[in-house]
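hey so u asked for the seq, here:
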Amino acid sequence: MPDPTVTAGPREANVVDIAEKFTHFTSHWSPKIIAQTSGWEIKLVKAHGEFAWHHHEVDEVFVVFAGELTVKLRGDSEVVLRPGQLYVVHRGVEHRPYAAAECQLILIEPPGVINTGEAGGELTAVDTWI
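ran it, structure tokens below
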């Protein structure tokens, strides 16, 4: 008899252990892709210190998994995120993430988004799968 706690669908279900995935890397500001769905990528990022001012031509979703992240916005405003909180930076909005201590983030954005947007520079990373 089938297990009643397991639901089957047309595709194989893949459970991703987010905490375990964070143990696979130590680099800061270097996104790691863990899943794709309906035209979006789910990425993990360890943040520490200040990132570059930049913007994207797409929306970007920040979810704090552990730690605290401040998203600075042009015009002297900022948003502080703590574990379990989510913030959408809408396309075209210039922002600068900052973490006083290491912060673990989940990013949700379309494939091909460059982490530094149009700003480029030494913090530009190549997305990799883990």
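Strands lie at 32-37, 40-50, 60-66, 69-73, 77-81, 86-89, 95-109, 128-129. The CA atoms of residues 58 and 91 lie 4 Å apart.
lmk if thats what u needed
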